[in-house]
């Protein structure tokens, strides 16, 4: 797109150079091309802005942040293009001002010629040859004078035709000279008819219409033809003009129909925007899905041409307001999400610190319960930014794993010592009462182990191994329990 913008800048420079070389006529010649380049350039420019903003928003979202106070980078091509447009407008204003002054001066000159023509046309007596040559001189001078103000053009032309016809009707010139002048005018008007008839082949109907206007101005400046040809030649010119005018009207009818269709399409896009209920979007995934829908709608909008001039601005403002409301709500959501992620991060860091403090304890029962409580609390805390989540989880699970590994080793040692002590006490205090106490102790230990294993849900390999080891311990305790039960039953049977 950057190359396309630079190409458009170069094209505008070329047009302005062309306009400067052509003088006053250059402004009107490049007007439509300048407007087309302007529309093309700013369509590309705004597409780049939206793409850059979207990329910044996605980068911020990926980092767990919210884009705020985004400003686009300075676009040197846009600055050059804007300066060229300013130069064009200044030149155009200068040319228009000069044209207005020239047209006012041209009006004075033509009014002076009309005064002389009127005097000649209303004279009671006249020197035929002198007046004829003077009339031709005035006609030649008239053709050298440029345009007059549009509001005066029709009236001036009517008077010019009127005085010419009055002169030729009044002045009794010899037939040869009169016929020669009429023939010259007929030849010139015939050429204009042919030029007007060729305009229907021009694919650019706007350009053809302007050319037709120029032909009409030239027609108005040509003198009369013989009476027997006046209606015929005018009918021919009028018919050729009618063909071009109908094509011009059809072109704008089609353009207006297209604009009406564009209005319907844009209204449909606005309805699709309205269907996106902001209050129903609660999660990051839902915002991503909604953003994709809005982006699709925006791409479709840019592909549609102008709506009718009367509604074009209002429907754009309605569309822009809906888009702004969406992105404002999205920004607010991610701002709130950022606060939530920050709170969650603080809470999980506190749990990591508490776990580290508990990890060194040898009060196995109380500390195990506290560790399990920390694990349960961890599950109730929402997500944190992705760049922190994995590291925090590793720290927390590693600390928990370290404690329970130490506990397991300590419990193995204690188990061996307790087994030996239980056997010794059984001999000293009586076989059955010791066995019953041991049986009840094992029952309680099995119950505690089965309850604690429910809280070991870590995602690491160490945590999974701890669960497996705890299950083996429970199975071993149950085997011991079965042995004690058999012994107690044997004692009872012997009694």
**Oligomerization status of the protein chains:** single chain
Total count of helical runs of at least 4 residues: 14
Q: What is the strand content?
A: under 5%
Round the mean pLDDT to the nearest integer and report it: 83
How many beta-strand runs? 0
Described by strand count, sense and barrel closure, the largest sheet is: none
Q: What global shape is seen?
A: rod-shaped
Structural class: mainly alpha
Helix content: over 70%
Could you list the spans in which at least 5 consecutive residues all have pLDDT below 50?
none
Topology pattern, helix = H, strand = E: HHHHHHHHHHHHHH
The CA-CA distance between the termini, in Å, is: 101 Å
Based on CA atoms alone, the radius of gyration comes out at: 49 Å
């Amino acid at each position: 797109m950057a190359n396309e913008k630079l190409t458009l800048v170069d094209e505008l420079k070329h047009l302005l150079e062309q306009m400067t070389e052509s003088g006053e006529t250059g402004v009107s010649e490049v007007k439509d091309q300048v407007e087309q380049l302007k529309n093309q350039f700013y369509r590309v420019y705004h597409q780049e802005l939206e793409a850059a903003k979207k990329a910044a928003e996605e980068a911020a979202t990926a980092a767990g942040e919210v884009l705020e106070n985004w400003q686009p980078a300075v676009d040197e091509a846009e600055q050059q293009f804007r300066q060229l447009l300013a130069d064009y407008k200044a030149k155009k204003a200068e040319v228009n001002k000069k044209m207005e002054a020239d047209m006012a001066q041209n009006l004075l000159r033509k009014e002076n010629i009309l005064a002389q023509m009127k005097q000649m046309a209303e004279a009671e007596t006249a020197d035929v040859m002198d007046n004829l040559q003077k009339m031709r001189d005035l006609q030649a001078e008239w053709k050298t004078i440029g345009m007059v103000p549009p509001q005066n053009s029709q009236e001036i032309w009517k008077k010019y035709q009127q005085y010419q016809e009055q002169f030729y009707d009044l002045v009794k010139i010899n037939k040869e000279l009169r016929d020669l002048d009429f023939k010259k005018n007929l030849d010139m008007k015939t050429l204009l008819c042919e030029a007007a008839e060729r305009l229907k082949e021009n694919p650019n109907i706007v350009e053809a219409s302007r050319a037709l206007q120029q032909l009409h101005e030239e027609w108005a400046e040509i003198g009369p033809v013989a009476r027997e040809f006046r209606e015929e030649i005018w009918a021919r010119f009028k018919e050729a003009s009618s063909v071009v005018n109908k094509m011009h009207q059809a072109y704008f009818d089609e353009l207006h129909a297209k604009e009406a269709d564009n209005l319907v399409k844009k209204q449909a896009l606005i309805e699709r925007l309205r269907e996106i209920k902001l209050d129903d979007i609660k999660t990051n995934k839902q915002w991503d899905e909604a953003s994709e829908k809005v982006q699709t709608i925006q791409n479709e909008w840019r592909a549609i041409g102008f709506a009718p001039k009367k509604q074009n601005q209002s429907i754009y403002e309605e569309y822009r307001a809906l888009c702004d409301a969406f992105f404002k709500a999205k920004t607010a959501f991610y701002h709130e999400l950022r606060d939530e992620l920050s709170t969650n991060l603080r809470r999980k860091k506190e749990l990591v610190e508490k776990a580290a403090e508990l990890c060194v304890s040898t009060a196995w029962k109380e500390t195990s319960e506290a560790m399990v409580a920390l694990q349960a609390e961890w599950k109730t805390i929402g997500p944190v930014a992705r760049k922190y989540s994995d590291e925090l989880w590793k720290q927390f699970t590693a600390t928990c794993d370290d404690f329970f590994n130490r506990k397991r080793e300590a419990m193995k040692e204690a188990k061996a010592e307790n087994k030996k002590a239980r056997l010794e006490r059984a001999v000293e205090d009586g076989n059955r009462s010791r066995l019953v106490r041991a049986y009840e102790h094992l029952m309680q230990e099995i119950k505690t182990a089965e309850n604690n294993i429910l809280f070991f849900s870590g995602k690491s390999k160490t945590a999974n191994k701890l669960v497996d080891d705890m299950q083996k311990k429970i199975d071993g305790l149950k085997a011991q329990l079965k042995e004690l039960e058999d012994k107690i039953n044997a004692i009872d049977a012997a009694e």
